[in-house]
Design brief:
The protein has a 5-stranded parallel beta sheet. With 248 residues, it is α/β, with parallel strands linked by helices. It is built from 12 helices and 5 strands. Helix content is 52%, strand content 11%. It has helices at residues 3-12, 16-26, 32-58, 80-86, 90-93, 108-121, 131-143, 147-155, 172-185, 209-221, 233-236, 243-246; strands at residues 97-101, 126-130, 159-165, 190-195, 223-227. α9 (172-185) runs parallel beside α10. It binds adenosine-5'-diphosphate and magnesium ion. Adenosine-5'-diphosphate binds at residues 65, 69-71, 74-75, 104-110, 194, 228, 233-234, 246-248.
Length: 248
């Protein structure tokens, strides 16, 4: 019989009446506390799984990807252990940043989705957005006078995944909002992004060099940059045996 575990469960489950009475009720039965502990463990397990499911649904992943299906041999330059460490989600606890940089089709979004999926299973509230989608939502919110609410809503997520930064240049108004989101998260919440642009090229996306360097500073100060190389996985497998796997 493990009473401390049972009492921890009853507190976590917010069942104060059970906590206060289970010993008294137990006197009427042979070994009811052990039984109750088993029952509560099942309840705990179910709530834990429901939490994971809810976080995955809230994350708005376009598709589920994990590292089980990622072929690291196709990216020999990528530090596998460091990438797998991201899947342990400590970087989320530490409010750190990860940047996946490289040409199209090299698995950046796959890895972004995989660290997001792991974060959900590790108890972190996660949101996946594309840079363009995020900026449209922010511009809409601003126009509707709901920007503060929108920013507060984004702030609820422990990990924000921004896919495809740099594919299209943004207007000043939009980049200012992006800078606001990145600044808001700096040292408080975690962020992971994918981009096809080297930092030197970020002035193509941001309206001026000052803004670009301010964003880069915030991203790399407590963060890691991972460079993806090589030919596109999509092109490599086109017509080949693994075509099915390469489809997004
Ligand atoms: P990127 O975001 O860099 O453009 P994606 O992550 O979208 O590339 O990859 C394109 C497709 O190829 C996806 O279906 C992805 O799962 C797959 N893919 C890319 N690299 C790998 C890899 N190393 N192992 C397994 N699948 C990969
Ligand atoms: Mg991508």
């Amino acid at each position: 019989m493990n009473t401390p575990l049972l009492e921890a469960h009853l507190k976590a489950l917010k069942l104060p009446a059970v906590l206060a009475n289970y010993q008294r009720i137990a006197q009427r039965v042979d070994d009811p506390v052990a039984y109750l502990a088993d029952v509560m463990s099942v309840e705990m397990e179910r709530r834990h799984e429901n939490g994971i499911k809810q976080r995955i649904a809230a994350a708005r992943f376009p598709t589920i990807k994990t590292f089980d299906s990622f072929d690291f041999s196709a990216q020999p330059g990528l530090p596998k252990m460091k990438i797998l460490e991201l899947a342990e989600s400590r970087f989320v606890d530490d409010c750190r940043t990860a940047v996946f940089y490289g040409p199209p089709g090299t698995g950046k979004t796959h890895c972004l989705l995989a660290i997001g999926f792991s974060a959900c299973t590790n108890g972190h509230r996660t949101l996946f957005v594309t840079a363009a989608g995020l900026l449209n939502e922010l511009l809409d919110a601003k126009r509707d006078g709901a920007l503060t609410r929108k920013l507060r809503n984004l702030d609820r997520f422990d990990l924000l995944l921004i896919d495809e930064l740099g594919y299209i240049p943004f207007e000043r108004e939009a980049t200012d909002l992006l800078v606001q989101v990145i600044s808001q998260r700096y040292e408080r919440k975690s962020l992971a992004i994918t981009t096809n642009l080297a930092f030197e090229q970020w002035t193509q996306v941001f309206p001026d060099a000052m803004t670009a360097s301010a964003v880069i500073d915030r991203l790399i100060h407590h963060g890691s940059v991972f460079e993806f190389n090589g030919t596109s996985h999509r092109l490599r497998n086109r017509g080949g045996k693994s075509t099915k796997e390469s489809r997004t």
